[in-house]
Amino acid sequence: MGTKQRMDIRRSATWRIVVFAALILLAAAGILFSLVSGAVNISPTAIYRVFTGNEQGMIKDIIWNVRLPRTLIAGIVGISLALAGALLQGVMRNPLADPHIIGVSSGAGLFGIATLVIFPSYAYLMTPIAFVGALGAAMLIYALAWQNGVRPGRIILAGVAVSAFFSSGISGLLTFYSDRVDGALLFLVGGLSAKSWPHLYLLLPYTIVGTLVALLSAQRMNIMMLGDSDARGLGLQVEKMRLLITAIAALLAASAVSVVGLLGFVGMIVPHAARMLIGNDYRVLLPATVLLAIAVLTIFDTLGRILFAPVELPVGIMMGAIGAPFFLYLLRKRGMQE
Questions:
Q1: Taking a C-beta distance cutoff of 8 angstroms, is the pair 35, 67 a contact?
Q2: b/e string for 202-212 if b means 16 or more Cβ within 10 A?
Q3: pLDDT tens, position by position, 162-219
Q4: How many CA atoms lie within 13 A of 9 on its CB side?
Q5: What was the pLDDT predicted at 293?
């Protein structure tokens, strides 16, 4: 099947309905899988009784106080990172763009780690502080990549350099404050262990705002994908729009990083997979990305909990094991196309 035929199929209303129905079922299956699986296996019937108020005791405590908040956080973190990746890929016109790879998450992580180890009394300001670091990293990458315009290859190179710089800063902080690193170790790999309702309440407002702005900007993202000159010809204020989208992506990435740490590759894998399923139209790509992100994070977090029980493998390690080969595949594919 040729490229044009695949594009025509992905644009058809019937295909999109089928894809969205499948993604909704997959997201629901991921949530259910996360709720039923663990050290204590709980049946779907018991979960139904918990939500209807007919189940008491240990099962209710496990679902309500442990698994439900962790499942919701996994889904929301997935949404935040995947939308951030989709927005950055559009703004930078590069499918390899990812908050973790190009250094946005590292900027948020450096500021977050600094808060944890130097100013722990300000931990409640972690998200806005991480946002400053993420936005600063994004602006620095953009400035370094700019030379009579932005080329995708330069963005990746600048991002890798900025990521390495901020990662060195994180390592330096952990070296100088080695007596305070216990809370920072999980932060470095990205994990959902011990996350509960307070973390959800911290994360939710930023994700809601970022998601709404992203969805409302979908049509403008489509115009930006045409290129700067065409977008300006259609009346779009390109630089203002690029700054807004970059800020929203930084906010989404920073909110996720502030709760689960440096969880990588979600922002590259999920949007790209959604794009292969449903095309480049951001009006449908972003909702598809949201649903797929929920499924991916809930499923892989659960697998990390049960595959090596009683040892829990952080979801960041799981995503890294999948994401690195996927990144190399995309890099090779782009090289062949060029």
A1: yes
A2: bbeebbeebbe
A3: 888 888 888 888 888 777 666 566 777 788 888 899 989 989 999 999 999 999 999 9
A4: 11
A5: 96
* SS3 label, residue 310: coil
Q: What is the DSSP letter of 314?
A: P
Look-up of token digits 């992506």:
249
Q: Which residues of the chain have pLDDT under 70?
A: 1-11, 148-153, 180-185, 333-338
- Sequence-separated (6 or more) residues with CB below 8 Å from residue 54: none
pLDDT at 298: 96
* DSSP-assigned letters across all residues of 182-241: HHHHHHHH---TT--HHHHHHHHHHHHHHHHHHHHTHHHHHHHTT-HHHHHHTT--HHHH
Angle, helices 13-36/266-278, rounded to nearest 10 degrees:
140
Q: Which domain holds residue 50?
A: 3-337
Q: How far apart are CA 100 and CA 221, in angstroms?
A: 21
CATH number, domain of 284, equals: 1.10.3470.10
Length of the chain: 338
Nearest alpha carbon to residue 82 among 233, 300, 230: 300
Which pair of tokens denotes residue 100? 């973790």
CA 61-256-211 angle, 5° bins: 100
| Residue 310, preceding peptide bond in cis (omega within 30° of 0) | yes
Q: How many domains does the chain have?
A: 1
